[in-house]
Structure formats: C-alpha cells, structure tokens
Amino acid sequence: MTHDVIEPTFIDSETPTNDFGSRGRQLMSDMHSAIDRLADELVTPMVPGEVAEWLANVYKAAELASALLWRQLESVHNAEYARIVEVDPELFRRVEQMKAKDRDCVEELAKLLDRIKQLQEEAQVDEPDEAAMKESLDAVIEQGLGFVNHARMQGKARETWLAEAYYRDRGVGD
C-alpha cells in the first residue's frame, strides 16, 4: 500500500490539520464512534442471565474498534507523525513516544479481545455461574475502559503535537 503525501490544511487560523479528504475524516469519525460504542457497551449493566449477550456486544464493539484502529494507524497516524517531524524535526522524540503509545493501545486492545473471548467460552455452559465470573467481568470492564481512555488521550496528544509543530515558539528572534 502506498501513501500519498498529505499537505496540511487549516480549519481556522489557529488549528492545523491534515486534509485526508472525506474518506480520512470518515475514518476518524468512525474511530471516535467505535471508541464511544465500546465505552457504552462496557458500562451497560449486565442483566442476570444475559452475560453471554453482554460479552458478545462488548466483543463486537472491541473488534470494530480494533479494525478501525489498525486502519487509522496506517492511514492517518503515520501521515500525521511524518508531517509533525517534517515541520518540526525537534519533535522526533515526541513522535517516537506517540508511536510507542499507539503500539501499546494495539496490544491493550488485543489483550482485551483475548480476555473477552475466554470469558465467552466460560459463559457458553447452560447455566454459567455469573457470580463466580463477576470478578473477571469487572476486570474486563476496567481493562476496556482503560483502553478507551488511552485511545482518547492518544488522539488528543496527536492533535496537540501537530498544532505544536506549527506554532511552537522555537526561540528564533526577529
């Protein structure tokens, strides 16, 4: 897959952004929606007798977030990171830290999917012991919401450092 060079555009005089066209904007919007959906599924109370359904809903939401995260990393993040370093090479180290955090988010989401899959297997018995599963289910909620927060923080970090690449005071005098 080849990536076109993406030139920055400006929404207003204060905020640089990359113009990824309608496809890129849709991808970013879809990712935000997927993260929100995952958060909503995680905080939806589990009704007794419906743990398997709750797990299925959380898994579907996490799976969608995972697919979109990979696509966004390839299509949007890499271009943004390249642009940040192009505009302000002094931010190279910061970009490398953000890339590492992206990898952490991917790993975190993969572990969440694995854990949900394990719990789904446990819940497949005719009458799963939901009380015995409570601690594991609570851990999934905590793990999932942790991912949601990290993904949101990563988004804000990218926005911030892209803006900083353009507007940061580098100490250059007139």
Quick structural summary:
This protein has helices at residues 21-43, 51-87, 92-122, 130-167; strands at 8-10, 16-18. It is mainly alpha-helical and 174 residues long. The protein has a single domain (21-167), classed as Four Helix Bundle (Hemerythrin (Met), subunit A) (Up-down Bundle), CATH 1.20.120.
Element layout with pairings:
Elements (H helix, E strand, L loop, with lengths): L7 E3 L5 E3 L2 H23 L7 H37 L4 H31 L7 H38 L7
Antiparallel strand pairs: 1-2
Helix pairs in contact: 1-2, 1-4, 2-3, 2-4, 3-4
In sequence order, what are the helices and strands, one letter per element? Answer: EEHHHH
The major pleated sheet works out as: 2 strands, antiparallel
The CATH class is Mainly Alpha
The domain tally reads 1
**Overall morphology:** elongated
Average pLDDT, to the nearest integer?
Answer: 83
CATH architecture: Up-down Bundle
Offer a few descriptive terms.
mainly alpha; 74% helix; Four Helix Bundle (Hemerythrin (Met), subunit A); 174 residues; disordered N terminus; 4 helices; two-stranded antiparallel sheet
What does this structure look like?
The longest helix has about 40 residues, at about 130-165. A hairpin with a 5-residue loop joins β1 and β2. It is elongated and about 65 Å long. About 75% of the residues lie in helices and about 5% in strands. It has a single domain (about 20-165), classed as Up-down Bundle (Four Helix Bundle (Hemerythrin (Met), subunit A)). The protein contains four helices and two strands. It has helices at about 20-45, 50-85, 90-120, 130-165, and strands spanning about 10, 15-20. With about 170 residues, the protein is mainly α.
